[in-house]
Amino acid sequence: MSEETKIPQLQLRYEQTTALYASQFVISTNGEEVIINFSSGGLADKGKAYLPVHTRIALTTTGAKNLANLITQALSETSKVTVSNLSSKVIH
Fold first, then answer.
1. What is the domain range of residue 54?
2. Which residue, 75, 35, 81, is CA-closest to 59?
């Protein structure tokens, strides 16, 4: 592959490093996209329970399948991590 056609290696840049905790999520799909709504948990208000959504992510079905595979791979890797090897890893 020539120098002109080489694809540069992707590097992560953390512009925003805050994280929101999500213990609950709701997934919906219409066949072309998958929408994941994240929440930190249910709340009660005037006798009714509701799930406040703090983040929503929309993916193509292919993107959702890739995400599911990456999560499965990351969980598999997590079971192999030792206490001395707790650094973050980019899995692709």
1. 20-80
2. 35
